[in-house]
Specification:
The protein has 17 helices and 12 strands. With 536 residues, it is of the alpha/beta class. It has 2 domains: 295 residues, Up-down Bundle (ABC transporter transmembrane region fold); 209 residues, P-loop containing nucleotide triphosphate hydrolases (Rossmann fold). The strands form 4 sheets. The chain has a 5-stranded parallel beta sheet, sandwiched between helices. A 3-stranded antiparallel beta sheet has the order 2-1-12, with no helix packed on it. The longest helix has 50 residues.
């Protein structure tokens, strides 16, 4: 299990300390401003004119200091939140990269998108906004009560119970927010997953008459999302309404206390100014509940994602990597009589894998590529267990390409060479692409710098398969594994690919559903039984 990054890890601890100091500075400036207001109103009530302009200077500088420190703390808080989101984003991606291919493939792309966008927004908002607001409330509210007490003890003593009551009521309403945020997140997840899956296929759904059905589904998901959003909104607004009511009651009480005790106008005005400065952190405290509950829901999902099983860690070996694989030996058990059979493929052999189901053949090639932890324990390369090689070392030894491999958005050059340890020259890439039948693609896109859309959507299905075939032909790895690729090539492209295989010195394994002429390959391995072990 991968652990979550620490909230105050790295430089975030220092940034949080800066926020605390900035908030202490705001509290000091707010107190100074309150006393300056009191002195100014006292002079105004005495009608003696302003002989001392110090209160004006203090009031102006206090406002400037509060503004600067508030902007500063907000900027530092945002940087802290973005840093935390970046660490989590990297941790989730790193963890996902170590998971089995099939496990990742079984997850809906919309759910993955929500985790990298929605969940990270909630996590970032808590660290960048929620935590600073919580600290601000913890500092500024007590300072507000202290200044009120210093102006007039009754102001502080009577206001304290109101603030306590406000926090208690907000806690009651805020207790419903965690469940409301989980419900809202679930509704967002379903809608995001459905839309991510369906939007790229909208023209196809229209062609088969499913648009109305899909629109009904979108409406159903949207209605659920609206209900969840309204539930969360009501709880949030109830929490945010409490400070407004309490502040109005507190202001009326201060005026009444001042009138009853015949206090100076300056004291009442200073108390009201102080109350105004203290109500804002109380309002922010209302948002803290919402941000924390959203953070808790996202944090729970991220912990669950990071607890999923990964492939065994590969530290790498110190020995030199072999330039060629001498031979491949496979030991497997016949289900019928449990007899073990050993078959061998000399270096440079071209082997067609047939007989088993597509799923079993894919699993076998994945095991040979080191992506199946159970099989990796029984695979050796020059006497070294395959599981001991790092991902970088395996990428130099093995090229594993499936018909479902991604075509990322970018240049055609990138698509044709993705995953190759060393990119060939443009001349070689173009020559290989033209041989396999991609000449029209090069012309249509404007050469290797032409842009391929996400998933290769601006390419025909046959052209996408040819792009993957070019990757295999450009590979310099001594062992090439191809799953479901060769048989999907058209007749002319397949003939070119077989000519490349015959000339290549690499050992090539490829899956096939049908019989392959022996003139094209060295052997056919019919795995109709369970593979027990592999030795390379």
């Amino acid at each position: 299990m991968t652990s979550m990054p620490k909230i105050l890890g790295g430089r975030r601890g220092r940034e949080f300390a800066l926020i605390v100091f900035a908030l202490l500075g705001q509290a000091t400036a707010a107190g100074a401003a309150a006393f300056a207001v009191r002195d100014l109103f006292s002079s105004l009530a005495a009608r003696q004119g302003f002989t001392d302009f110090t209160p004006f200077l203090v009031l102006g500088l206090s406002g400037l200091a509060i503004a600067i420190l508030r902007v500063f703390s907000r900027i530092v808080g945002e940087r802290m939140g973005q840093s935390y989101a970046y660490d989590i984003r990297c941790e989730i991606y790193r963890h996902t990269s170590r998971m089995a291919r099939q496990t990742v493939a079984n997850r809906r792309s919309g759910a993955i998108s929500l985790r990298f966008v929605g969940d990270l927004t909630a996590l970032r908002s808590w660290v960048g906004l929620g935590m600073p607001q919580l600290v601000a409330a913890a500092i500024l509210i007590p300072v507000t009560l202290l200044v009120l007490y210093l102006i007039e003890p009754e102001f502080g003593l009577y206001t304290l119970p109101l603030f306590i009551l406000a926090v208690a009521i907000m806690a009651v309403f805020g207790s419903k927010l965690p469940e409301a945020n989980r419900y809202l997140r679930s509704a967002r997840w379903r809608l995001a997953a459905d839309m991510t899956e369906r939007m790229p296929n909208a023209p196809y759904f229209e062609s088969i008459g499913r648009t109305r059905y899909e629109m009904d589904l979108i409406k159903k998901r949207t209605d659920t999302l609206i209900d969840a959003s309204m539930e969360r909104l009501k709880s949030t607004e109830y929490v945010r309404a409490v400070p407004e009511i309490i502040s109005a009651i507190a202001a009326a009480m201060i005026i009444w206390l001042g009138f009853r005790a015949q206090l100076p106008t300056g004291s009442v005005a200073g108390a009201l100014a102080t109350l105004g400065l203290g109500v804002q952190p109380l309002r922010d405290l209302g948002m803290v509940w919402n941000r924390h509950s959203a953070w808790a829901a996202a944090h729970e999902k991220c912990i669950r994602a990071l607890s999923q099983e990964t492939l065994p860690a590969r530290q790498g070996t110190s020995g030199a990597l072999p330039k060629k694989l001498p031979s491949v030996s496979v030991a497997y058990l016949h289900i019928s009589d449990s007899a073990e059979t050993l078959v061998e493929a000399p270096a440079g052999s071209k082997i067609a894998i047939t007989g088993a189901s597509d799923t079993d053949k894919t699993a076998w090639l994945a095991g040979l590529a080191g992506l199946n932890p159970d099989m990796a324990q029984r695979i050796e390369i020059n006497g070294t267990g395959l599981g001991e090689f790092s991902a970088k070392q395996r990428s130099s030894l093995i090229t594993f390409i499936t018909a479902d491999d991604p075509l990322l958005k970018g240049s055609l050059r990138r698509v044709l060479t993705l995953g190759l340890p060393k990119r060939p020259s443009d001349r070689k890439i173009i020559r290989t692409a033209e041989r396999i039948g991609l000449g029209p693609v090069l012309e249509r896109l404007g050469g290797l710098d032409g842009k391929v859309s996400e998933g290769g959507r601006n390419l025909a299905s046959g052209e996408r398969i040819c792009c993957l075939a070019v990757r295999a032909m450009l590979s310099r790895a001594p062992l090439v594994l191809l799953d479901g690729l060769v048989e999907m090539l058209d007749t002319d492209s397949q003939a070119v690919f077989f000519r490349w295989m015959r000339k290549s010195q690499a050992t090539v394994f490829f899956t096939s559903r049908s019989h392959v002429e022996q003139t094209e390959i060295d052997a056919t391995w019919d795995f109709t039984s369970r593979v027990a072990g592999i030795r390379v």
